[in-house]
TrEMBL record:
It comes from Lentibacillus populi. This is t-SNARE coiled-coil homology domain-containing protein. SUPFAM superfamilies: Tropomyosin. Gene3D superfamilies: Designed single chain three-helix bundle. It comes from the Bacteria.
């Protein structure tokens, strides 16, 4: 029976060593988790800042669009007035025609820029959304792994307590 007790004590020492190792790993994991959690917080803050900047850009873009619309309306009014005076001012009409051509060119370029900007803006929003979902998914995974590690550690501690009780019974 002395040899059995010695074997049980050796097993308990091995389990205690493993528990100490697991405890160290859990501490490291907790530290890494806290660091990751802080980084996620920083990312959230930067994401909110970027979202606010995108909102500001969108507002400025809408303002510019409204101003361009007002300019187009004024131009249409001017074009109607030029049409009314067309028979008397042929030379003026030729000048206005050149201006219209340039304006159409600028309008076309602006519309192209507007379409490109809207597409890029949509792409940025999609990328931000995907990145945010990725971070949230990893954050959830880390929380799940942390909970599983704690559960395993508690289970191992319960096993050690059971072995200690059995050892105490054997010693009596």
């Amino acid at each position: 029976m002395g040899e059995d007790l010695q074997i049980v004590l050796e097993q308990i020492n091995k389990i205690n060593t493993r528990l100490d190792s697991i405890d160290g790993k859990v501490d490291t994991f907790d530290s890494n988790f806290d660091s990751l959690d802080a980084k996620v917080g920083t990312f959230d803050s930067k994401f909110d800042s970027l979202d606010a900047k995108v909102g500001t850009f969108d507002s400025k873009f809408d303002s510019l669009d409204a101003r361009v619309g007002a300019f187009e309306s004024k131009f249409d009014s001017l074009d109607a007035r030029v049409g009314a005076f067309e028979s008397k001012f042929d030379s003026l009409d030729a000048g206005v025609g050149a201006f219209e051509s340039k304006f159409d060119s600028y309008e076309s370029r602006f519309k192209s820029f507007e379409q490109t900007t809207k597409k890029e803006f949509s792409n940025i929003q999609l990328k931000i959304k995907n990145l945010h979902e990725f971070v949230e998914m990893n954050h959830t995974l880390i929380k799940t792994n942390h909970a599983m590690t704690i559960k395993h550690l508690k289970s191992t501690q319960n096993d050690v307590q059971l072995i200690k009780k059995q050892t105490e019974k054997m010693q009596k």
